[in-house]
């Protein structure tokens, strides 16, 4: 440090001291070299001595190294082989470890392919799920795993498409088999109901005990046959009770539902299934245009509907969520409205009561079958009441034709019975009682004609036909009794009454026929109480019941009698007019023939024979007819006498006319119909008698003098009438 100080000569002194130090060190080095020089020389000398040995050693080492290298070549080769083997061993171990990871994946994928081939799609989806979640993540670094991962979604879509295709095939299959399913279900329901009904009738020993004897035997034998047949059918079908599963394979639905549920698309599947089934429901509910023509058309229609809802009910109970009770109820309500509209339309086309009855039976079986599956069917039974009214209308039309045929075939003469057996046959058909007739010996005649027992039998047959429809409607006996009485009332008051009125108006029905019709209606009227008893025995409802309706046959037959009576009066007058038309008076004759005109005698003979036929009529009817005929004859004769075209009459013609009137008065006084008091019938000709007496006696002074007095001899002679004749 001081070297760099600013002291004078400092640097030089430092250099001097440094040189002095160097000289000291050189002297020390020289001393040391001198000290070790001999040793160095000795060492070099020894080293030179060793040089030869070193050369020798080098040669030996080289030789040894050469020999060692030659010997080591084989070791190196063996070592390299060992290294290569150990590398292979390590690789094999690694490969085994990796294969142990990959083999389960490949086995599962192979299993997946096999499941796809044998169409076990649900198991295939489960296998895919295991592959994705458990196996593939372990070996995801390999390319084949990536290929598998890419293929799995495609396989899922393939499974969805295949299962959907199977579902479509299933939907098509149940559409084809729904009528068979429905037919089987309805047949089983009907067999069960028939068996129960037959067993109930067999046990009910009092059923129909008071019914008509012949009909009871028929029904009893029918019940036995039905029960026997039911037992036989039950034995036959006991071993083969078919269900929907026996007729249709439901596995495609289950598979598809499970598959879509596993894939997380369960809601899509449910919506698709319900949509397709709704479409099928609309197709099933669409009837054929000619369905109303045969009962088979209705049966096929009902079978398809029952089959459809049996399948839905089965799906409801064996799957969860695919079909719900709310969905089936909604579908049924829609279907029920459509069914009712279809039946209401098509049943209106039916004109055959047998077809309507078979339709009713089908509807009852249809309703009972679906009710057994839990569907509400009250509206169907309400519809049956509408169809029942239509059934009654078709029955009324049919029975109208039967009544017309009976009336046309009747000979309108009393029924002859030659012996007791014939009498019992008639009595078995018609409730006739007449103690006076019973006392008479055979052969004898019943007052009514052949149409009366036939009409009575047909009315009973109508009641049976009406009862057939009322059965199985789940109604009380009182309601059935009321229905039968109302329909019978319609038959009597409308159909039979109309047939009677038309019969009475027919031109070929003569007075004899009209008289017999009046007698027939009287006996039919009396038989109405037996019809009421008949209905009560069928329904087991007493007539004393407050709500029991009564038959209106009395008014029907009374109206028919009144119409027949009026027609008798009309036809009598027409016959009188026919005789009057053939009258041929010579109004200018100088004197009379001394006897009554031929036409008038024929007319009186006709009236006399006609009134003899009236002996079976009620007295009032015969008297009214006789009085009406006499009055009409009197009026017709008066009109003939006062005819405006008649310009001149001689006194001889007046005398001839007087002879004819005398014959009329004699006829009236002979009491052609019993029951007239005094000369009541003769009063019908009093106007003619007084007018003719006035002109025959020419008693004008008395007529003019007593005119207007109650005691006048010519009180009934009108001045204008007398003036016209004068």
Walk me through the structure:
This protein is mainly alpha-helical and 726 residues long. Helices cover 76% and strands 1% of the residues. It has helices at residues 10-117, 121-135, 143-203, 213-237, 244-247, 251-262, 266-285, 295-318, 325-347, 353-372, 378-409, 420-429, 435-439, 451-470, 477-505, 511-526, 528-539, 553-581, 598-613, 619-641, 651-669, 686-697, 700-706, 719-725; strands at residues 415-417, 444-446. The chain has a two-stranded antiparallel sheet with strand order 1-2. Helix 3 runs antiparallel to helix 4 (213-237), helix 10 (353-372) packs antiparallel against helix 11 and helix 16 packs antiparallel against helix 18. The longest helix has 108 residues, at 10-117. The chain is rod-shaped, with a radius of gyration of 64 Å.
């Amino acid at each position: 440090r001081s070297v760099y100080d600013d002291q004078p000569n400092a640097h030089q002194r430092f250099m001097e001291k440094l040189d002095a130090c160097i000289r000291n060190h050189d002297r020390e080095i020289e001393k040391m070299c001198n000290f070790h020089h001999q040793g160095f020389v000795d060492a070099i000398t020894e080293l030179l001595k060793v040089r030869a040995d070193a050369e020798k050693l080098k040669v030996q080492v080289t030789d040894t190294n050469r020999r060692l290298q030659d010997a080591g070549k084989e070791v190196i080769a063996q070592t390299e082989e060992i290294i290569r083997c150990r590398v292979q061993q390590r690789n094999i171990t690694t490969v085994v470890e990796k294969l142990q990871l990959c083999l389960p994946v490949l086995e599962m994928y192979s299993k997946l392919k096999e499941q796809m081939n044998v169409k076990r799609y649900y198991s295939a989806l489960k296998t895919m799920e295991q592959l994705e979640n458990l196996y593939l993540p372990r070996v995801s670094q390999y390319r084949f795993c990536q290929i598998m991962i890419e293929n799995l979604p495609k396989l899922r879509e393939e499974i969805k498409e295949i299962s959907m295709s199977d579902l479509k095939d299933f939907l098509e299959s149940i559409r084809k088999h729904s009528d068979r399913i429905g037919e089987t279900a309805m047949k089983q329901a009907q067999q069960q109901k028939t068996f129960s009904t037959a067993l109930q009738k067999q046990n009910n020993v009092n059923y129909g005990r008071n019914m008509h004897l012949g009909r009871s035997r028929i029904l009893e034998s029918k019940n036995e046959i039905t029960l026997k047949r039911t037992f036989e059918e039950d034995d036959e079908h006991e071993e083969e009770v078919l269900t929907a599963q026996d007729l249709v394979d439901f596995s495609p639905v289950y598979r598809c539902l499970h598959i879509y549920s596993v894939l997380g698309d369960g809601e899509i599947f449910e919506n698709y299934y319900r949509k397709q089934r709704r479409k099928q429901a609309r197709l099933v509910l669409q009837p054929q245009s000619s369905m109303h023509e045969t009962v088979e058309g209705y049966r096929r229609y009902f079978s398809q509907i029952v089959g459809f809802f049996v399948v839905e009910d089965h799906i409801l109970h064996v799957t969860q969520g695919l079909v719900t009770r709310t969905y089936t109820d909604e579908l049924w309500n829609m279907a029920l409205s459509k069914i009712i509209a279809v039946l209401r339309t098509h049943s209106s086309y039916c004109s055959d009561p047998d077809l309507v009855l078979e339709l009713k039976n089908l509807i009852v079986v249809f309703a009972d079958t679906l009710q057994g599956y839990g569907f509400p069917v009250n509206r169907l039974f309400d519809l049956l009441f509408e169809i029942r009214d239509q059934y009654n209308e078709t029955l009324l039309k049919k029975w109208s034709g039967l009544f017309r045929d009976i009336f046309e075939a009747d000979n309108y003469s009393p029924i002859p019975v030659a012996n007791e057996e014939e009498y019992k046959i008639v009595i078995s058909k018609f409730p006739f009682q007449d103690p006076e007739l019973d006392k008479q010996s055979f052969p004898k005649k019943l007052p009514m004609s052949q149409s009366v027992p036939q009409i009575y039998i047909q009315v009973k047959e109508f009641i049976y036909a009406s009862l057939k429809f009322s059965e199985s409607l789940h109604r009380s006996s009182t309601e059935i009794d009321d229905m039968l009485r109302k329909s019978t009332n319609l038959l009597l008051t409308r159909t039979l009454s109309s047939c009677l009125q038309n019969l009475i108006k027919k031109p070929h029905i003569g007075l004899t026929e009209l008289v017999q019709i009046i007698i027939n209606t009287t006996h039919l009227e009396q038989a109405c109480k037996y019809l009421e008893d008949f209905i009560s025995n069928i329904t087991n409802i007493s007539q004393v019941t407050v709500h029991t309706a009564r038959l209106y046959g009395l008014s029907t037959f009374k109206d028919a009698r009144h119409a027949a009576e009026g027609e008798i009066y009309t036809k009598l007058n027409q016959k009188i007019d026919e005789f009057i038309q053939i009258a041929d008076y010579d109004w200018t004759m100088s004197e009379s023939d001394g006897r009554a005109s031929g036409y008038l005698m024929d007319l009186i003979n006709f009236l006399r024979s006609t009134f003899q036929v009236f002996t079976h009529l009620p007295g009032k009817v015969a008297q009214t007819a006789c009085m009406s005929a006499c009055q009409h004859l009197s009026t017709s004769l008066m009109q003939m006498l006062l005819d405006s075209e008649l310009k001149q009459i001689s006194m001889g013609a007046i005398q001839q006319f007087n002879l004819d009137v005398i014959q009329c008065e004699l006829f009236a006084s002979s009491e052609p119909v019993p029951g007239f008091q005094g000369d009541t019938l003769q009063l019908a000709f009093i106007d003619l008698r007084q007018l003719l007496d006035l002109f025959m006696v020419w008693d004008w002074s008395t007529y003019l003098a007593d005119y207007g007095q109650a005691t006048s001899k010519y009180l009934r002679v009108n001045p204008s009438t007398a003036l016209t004749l004068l």
